[in-house]
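Bit of a strange request maybe. I'm writing a small parser for structure token strings and I need a real example to test against, not something I typed by hand. Could someone generate the tokens for this chain?
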Amino acid sequence: MGRVISFILLCGTLLTAKAQEPPFKHGEKITYTVFYNVIGIYINAGNATFTTSVEQYNNNNVFHVVGEGATNSKYDWIFKVRDRYESYFNTTDLQSVKFIRNINEGSFKMHEEVSFNQQTNTAVTSAGVYKVPSKIQDVINAIYYARNFDYNTFKPGDKFNFSMFLDNKVYNLYVKYIGKEVIKTRYGRYNAIKLSPQLITGTIFKDDDKMTMWVTDDANHIPVRVESPIAVGSIKIDLKEYQNLKFPLSTIAKN
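Reply from user aminoacidic:
Good idea to test on real output. This should exercise your parser:
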């Protein structure tokens, strides 16, 4: 199952846009179920949770978002995953200032910390100092930055570029706006915005342009479903629970 759980922590990496009043607040919590399909049947493989708080970092107010993913305990004997991602970003312009990643997957373990200086356009890791583009994103920060978009200004087929720093590299990626539609998940039916983010291909993903994501067509813009083929089989990730959203989740469609 490799990094199936880590997938939800990366899949929302979207666009770069002018930040406005953020559509999230202190205390927001969003939980997802990860389904894995290898023989035509989806099984409940694990879960991922994102929590948001407002804290002080270097004498500035920042959002601190923690993304945690875990396989269901009954599958731990096959492959145990306990991953934790953290992002600190300014409450004013939503620019990333620090990123932490702790990966615990089977016998593979990794700890990574990145400090961003948006004034000098640098990223500092244990491996050195790297020059990065302005408004560089980490993989968690980008999810929340992208929730600020006014998708009503997009046209189907439009592509928007963004830059992401991961594994001591800068990736220049894009997301394609597909349109709007009703999406039915195991936990609800939503009016949604349909997107197709470009991926970093490698050990998990087979194709860099095959992921599909649906986010709520309301002021919250929270992901409600993500689908993608992977190296073996495919995965589906559905919104399960939410707490303390800044705005009412007003786009649940009637049957």
